[in-house]
Amino acid sequence: MRYSGFRVIKEALTGHKGWTPAWRDPEPQSAYDIVIIGGGGHGLATAYYLAKKYGEKKIAVLEKGWIGGGNVGRNTTIIRSNYLLDGNEPFYEMSLKLWEGLEQDFNYNAMISQRGILNLIHTDAQRDAFTRRGNAMILNGADAVMLSTDQIKAEYPFLNVNDARFPIKGGLAQRRGGTVRHDAVAWGYARGADSRGVDIIQNCEVTGFRIEQGACVGVETSRGFIGAKKVGAAVAGSSGRLMAKAGMRLPIESHVLQAFVSEGLKPLLPGVITFGAGHFYCSQSDKGGLVFGGDIDGYNSYAQRGNLPVVEDVCEGGMAILPAIGRARLLRMWGGIMDMSMDGSPIIDKTHIDGLYFNGGWCYGGFKATPASGLCFAHLLATDTPHEVATAYRFDRFQRGYMIDEKGMGAQPNLH
Ligand SMILES: Cc1cc2nc3c(=O)[nH]c(=O)nc-3n(C[C@H](O)[C@H](O)[C@H](O)COP(=O)(O)OP(=O)(O)OC[C@H]3O[C@@H](n4cnc5c(N)ncnc54)[C@H](O)[C@@H]3O)c2cc1C
User: Fold this and answer.
1) Among 282, 306, 341, where does a domain finish?
2) How far is the CA of 38 from the centre of ligand 1 (A)?
3) I need a labelling partner for 394 at 20 to 30 A (CA). Which of 218, 291, 332, 374 fits?
């Protein structure tokens, strides 16, 4: 069924009896050509592009819970492509371009809103760094513009520009950045994949890999063995635990990241802002809630909940630039498990086991990467070669010393 304005009117006039389920609930088959583990944004996008772009036929996505229950439905919904390094910027810019056409592509309203993102500047050194980053973005075909303090005052009148501990000295804006309704991305990709024959199997946990003579021939699951010619893992924060079942120790640690939503407020923030003297990022949802977050909790964990010291730290960051939020009440908060890699950049690669492929290490920036990650992982699975914008995202970069250390923090996963 195609969704359209005409369809909404027709259904409204006929008692909404014609809507069909957005995806099926199939029983697992005994074997598939390609099995994707993880029904998050990346796994579902991979299955979608495998079926749509690469014409693959027998595909299953195995999800241990329900689709959208992981980070894809837990993030702060920000999309952007404001990266500095060559290994990253072409990939994230391709992702942003895919976001721009995504709703038409998968025929689903994901509420993509290019309301812009503004990185605030508080020191001269930071202005130099952001100018350099803006130039790198433009060289890679992205958009970037430096804003003066007066321009920021005019666009964001509620920010504390001058009378602040960290006065705002300007900002780097990417007008094409913005927000997307996160769980609608999972639903849109799921519906698009299902309509092309992909089996999306929920409540199906992968508990092991069947490896024979160095090749992966399928997966053990809570619903029995499922054979596969190729297996792709895209389980984000559970990467370490899952790949350990194939005997692999990854250059990845899992950490908790929290997100917060305030009560609904009148319009306060037209776009996404990031604080430059601490870790705080914030946008305002269409319902008026401020959606914000900051640092990870800083200890290794597989729990989907965080602790109070980070709540305090994040709120202090917010108060430093937006004192008005001190009067707002917090409505909801939650946590997600982040797959933090050693250099802060992801991995999309084959493993040393034939037929077993890996996608992970997204740290806390993988939502914006969803379309490009899905496309590049599908390309790798279908062709056995890396996509041209993902050639740097390989396991052996850690061995060869070719880090993609966007933040310059070294092998400190909790700092990326
Ligand atoms: C609070 C928070 C805020 C964030 N904010 C942003 C942001 O603003 N912008 C941005 O770009 N990124 C953001 N991120 C990061 C982003 O959400 C993640 O990097 C990205 O969603 C990870 O990919 P995914 O969607 O595939 O993960 P997930 O949705 O977590 O998918 C992985 C799936 O694998 C399943 N799984 C795990 N183990 C197994 C198994 N053994 N068998 C079967 N299934 C299994 C899980 O149940 C899960 O559904 C944020 C994350 C969090 C938690």
Assistant:
1) 341
2) 9
3) 218
Structure tokens given for 390: 């993902």
Residue ranges making up the domain that contains 202: 20-77+182-251+343-415
**Could you tell me if 279 and 317 are in contact, meaning their C-beta atoms sit under 8 angstroms apart?**
yes
Q: What angle (nearest 5°) sits at the alpha carbon of residue 388, between those of residues 248 and 94? A: 100
Helices 182-195 + 89-106 axis angle, to 10:
60
Reduced 3-state DSSP string for 4-62: CHHHHHHHHHCCCCCCCCCCCCCCCCCEEEEEEECCCHHHHHHHHHHHHCCCCCCEEEE
- Region of residue 308 (phi > 0: left; psi between -120 and 50: alpha; otherwise: beta): alpha
pLDDT at 395 over 90: yes
Pocket test for ligand 1, best of 48, 61, 71 (most atoms within 8 A of CB): 71
- Strand-pairing partners, residue 206, are 221
181-232 residue pLDDT tens: 999 999 999 999 999 999 999 999 999 999 999 999 999 999 999 999 999 9
- Residue 251's CB is within 10 A of a number of other CB atoms, namely 17
The residue behind tokens 């980053």 is 133
